[in-house]
Amino acid sequence: MGDMTATDNYRVLLSGGEGEIVEKKSRFISTIRKCETEEEAVAFIEEMKKKYWDARHNCSAFIIGSRGELTRCSDDGEPSGTAGRPMLEVLTGSGIRNIAVVVTRYFGGTLLGTGGLVRAYTQAVKEGLDHCETGIMRKGCELEVTTDYNDVGKLQYYFGQQGIVPAESIYAENVKFILLVPVEKEDSLRKNLTETTCGKVKIEKLKETYFIDKE
Question: What is the pLDDT of residue 5?
Answer without folding.
Answer: 43
